[in-house]
Amino acid sequence: MIRSAADIAFSWSVRRQEMWNFCRRSCFLHYYGARGGHDADAVPELRNLHEMRSLLSESGYLRRLIGSELRAAFYAPHESEDPEFPAGFPHLSGAVMSRFHREFHRMLHGEFRRDHAAPMLETLYYSDSAGSGAVRERLERELRQALDALESGVWPILASVRFLHRRAIDSPLEVTIPGGVHCYVVPLLAFQEKGVLSFVESSGTDTTALLLRFHAMNVLHIPPNRVRTFELIPEKGVLRESGIELNAARTLREIQAGAAEMLNAVRPSGEVCLDDFPPRREACSGCRFRAFCRQL
Ligand code: SF4
What we know:
About 45% of the residues lie in helices and about 15% in strands. The protein has a five-stranded mixed sheet. The protein has a three-stranded mixed sheet with strand order 2-5-4. The chain has 13 helices and ten strands. It has three domains: about 1-55 and about 265-295, no CATH class; about 60-160, no CATH class; about 170-250, no CATH class. It binds iron/sulfur cluster.
């Protein structure tokens, strides 16, 4: 399998680096091999590969679901309520649980096969439908625990931030670092109080803390010492401050080195070849691509 690197813009992200470290072949399949498979008219092999690319782990799905509803609830009142003085705060549970039930129903009815943007769990994809009841129960239980923790923890604090102080932020957000590498981060929300800009995100890494500071400095003209970053840990209902001991120079070098190593896998001809991305067989049992890789 060979792709042209020129057709696929390179960008660095925490997720891509994790995938690269997990198994280089999975990185190839995700970023190059499955390219074009979102198209319903793509050849079946490519469609299958793209299906696997889109699968979500249970924990990844729960974080995405909660993060997305929390973000929507944080920003939505701008449209309908007084911009300065919110009255009470919206509850997350109803929105999250009804979306979960809707999406789970669609997963069982195969909507994902037609539309790969619809969420699908790896555990459902790889097991028969008889096991779906246990998956649903497990996810429901974990969701309720997380929502209880959030609603008695950090959510009322976030919801009490005045609308005036909430800052719209793209997610995903593109950030270009020195050396010209394009990177992506996925902030959930941002607010600015007493001159300090705070980002809430879900990776908790120094790399994300650094990239958000770059964005604040280069785009919003806010110096790094006026920026704070927080990781949302939904299952505990808390925010954990990240980047407290950030070594900016070292973290920047880590991103640049990771990106350079990935770009090195492109042949001088501009081709990207599956054979240049070694499999890591000991990781296969927990990998989304295992059905595809088994055939190789
Ligand atoms: S199935 Fe194994 S070799 Fe293939 S991408 Fe996944 S971890 Fe790598």
